Amino acid sequence: MSYPDPRYFGDTGEIDTRFRPDGEPPAITYPTGGTVDYLAGGASTDGQFGLYRWNFGAQESGPGPHFHRTITESFYILSGTVRLYNGEEWIKATAGDFLYVPQGGIHGFRNVPGEPASMLLLFTPGAPREDYFETLAEIARGRQLTHEESAEFFLRHDNHWV
Description:
This protein has one domain: Jelly Rolls (Sandwich). By secondary structure, it is of the alpha+beta class. The chain has helices spanning 129-140, 147-156, and strands at 28-29, 35-40, 50-56, 66-67, 72-79, 81-85, 90-94, 98-101, 108-111, 117-124, 160-161.
């Protein structure tokens, strides 16, 4: 394992940082009461990664088992209890627990019903997950997709259900 090839070729460095203060309103609020904070979307990291804070409401929510062909996904639990599917079983994860899922790894996540929870989601490389999260919120609010639209939506966002 070695460092990747350089992407910056200057000699002095650049003033080019991005700061997101805590307390900004969430990007999305789901009907379940859950919210998503876009901490660093793929576009803002030049496609290197996407980092999101997923805040569950008291209602159970989250996707069942699935995998991605093009992106990795990592989960870091900040608070509460989140059930993570590791490809074999649902495990209870609490604050400080971490799960890494490589491309092709079967996984899923759900909060424990009746309890709020919060976690960080990290995707590499930085795919455009914002459209995925926003469309899921529209569907949760009643938007109907045809079978063909649904299949295209999940394929476009590299979600393959098991």
